[in-house]
Each structure stands twice: as structure tokens, then as C-alpha cells.
Amino acid sequence: MENHVTAELQNLQKLTETLIEYVVKYAFQVLGALIILIVGYFVARAVGRLIVRLCQRHDMDVTLTRFFSNITRFVVLVFVVIIAMGKFGISIAPFIAALGALAFGSSFAFQGPLSNFGAGLTIILTRPFVVGNTLAVLGVSGLVDEITLTSTILITEDGEKITIPNKHIVGEIITNSFENRIVETSIGISYADDPERAVALIATVLASFEQVAAEPAPQIGIEEFADSAISIGMRYWVPTTSYFQTLYAVNQAVYTALKGAGITIPFPQQDIYIKEQAPSG
Predict the structure, then answer these.
(1) How far apart are CA 240 and CA 159, in angstroms?
(2) E-only strand ranges, the chain
(3) Dihedral sign of CA atoms 59, 64, 67, 71 in order
(4) H-run or E-run covering 28
(5) Mind listing the pLDDT tens digit for each residue in 54-91?
(6) Higher confidence at residue 120 or residue 100?
(7) Distance CA 24, CA 168 (A)
(8) Structural domain span for residue 244
(9) CATH code of 170's domain
(10) Which of 35, 78, 186, 187 to pair with 99, CA 20 to 30 A apart?
(11) Would 251 be classed as within a structural domain?
């Protein structure tokens, strides 16, 4: 029993000596690696902010500014990690080879994400639209809030976020109306009323709204000669963020103005005439 206790104490002593040896040998290396990582993190942030300021000084748009800033931070962090690994005497060559083999083996499984990255890079470099533009694609529309390498995020007037994978944007027909969106609507007046007077009233109503853009100027005119009314068409630009709000307010004001001027807004109707035929003979 005494021999067993002695052996256990000897093993514990050897373990303690081994731990002390490793601490003495690697403590400064671990501490140095941690310092390098912490300093490198703050350096990467500082360099990223510097890139943002440089891009803003040269009036570069927000999309490219974010892209260059993020890429720069990533590259700096990669070099910091490589330097920290070197403190332990670790060579990065095997890691690069392993990553290459892993990338080749997983390329088929990641075709979707990789195509999104490629499409995102195309969007960022060619800039068919930028943050703040109004985008309509694949049946949805909204204000571009953010463009990343994987997706584009739109914001609707109601605050909804629409996330579109970039591969579904590149190659599609997209409509970019910048900060505004066009309103196309019409209202019918009676054939007995003067259409020029109605057009003048509608122009006055549109001019009273600050949200309606003065340039390009609103377009108002006879759109169609319908069965029961003369259709007066209206085309004008409003901010995307208040599209429906402005549309409803303008419609109400146009209706009130026409009604106040005595201009009739008819409803569809049909006149039926019954012709009595005289009896034969």
C-alpha cells in the first residue's frame, strides 16, 4: 500500500514538473500571440475606418465603400492570424493545402453560395444600382438598404425587409428608379364636362403636394375615351418611402377638387331602349 502511494506521488510530481515546463516554455509565446491578435483586431478596425474616410473623400458610393472597407479588414486579420500562428512555430503551408483540397471537394455542395458570391461581386463592381435606389425585380420592389456579397436587402414603405439572393438578380430584368417611384393612375369625367378644365384642376392639386417631384414634371392628359367617361391619365413621381401615402392623399384631393368644381365623375352605365313592334296584319 505504501509503495502504491509513493508511485502515485511520483507520477503527480512528474505531471507537475511537465506542466511547469510547458508553462515556462510556451507562456510568453501564448501571451505574445494574444497580444498580436488583440492589437491586430484594433489595427484592422482602424484601417477599415481609414478606407471609409478615403472613399467618402473621393465621393465614392456607399456600396463600394463598404466593400473595400470589409475586404481590407479581412486581409489585415488574415495576416494577423498568420503572424500569431508563427509565434508557435506553426507553418501555414499544410493548412493552405488542406483548404485547397477541402474547397475542391466541397465546390459542388456550395454551388449556390458560390454563385451568390460571384453575382454579389458583379453587382458591387458594375453598380447597376446602389444603396438608396429603388429596385424592382422578380415581382418585388423596395428601397435598397444593403448590398452584400451574398444578397441584396430591400426595405418597403411598411418597413418590411426583402432579402434577395444575388444570383437571382444578375441576369434578370431589373428596374432602377433611383430615389423615387412613378405613380400611374387615371380618373374618369363625364363627356358633358370640359377635359381641359379637369386637367388644369388636377395640375393645381399635384403642384400643392411637396412629395410630388417637380422634375420630371407630372404628365396629365386624356388617356382614353371610355364607354361612360373620358379617362384623364396622371403620371407623377413620388418618394419610394411614401408611395402609397402620397397616392391616397392625391386621389382624395383630386376627387374633392373635381367634385367642388362641379365636374361629374360618372359610373359605368348602359341605356336600354325597348322598341315596340307593331303587330302584323
Answers:
(1) 12
(2) 134-137, 140-147, 151-155, 161-165, 175-176, 180-189, 219-225, 230-239
(3) negative
(4) helix 2-57
(5) 888 877 767 777 778 888 888 888 888 877 777 666 66
(6) 120
(7) 56
(8) 181-260
(9) 2.30.30.60
(10) 35
(11) yes
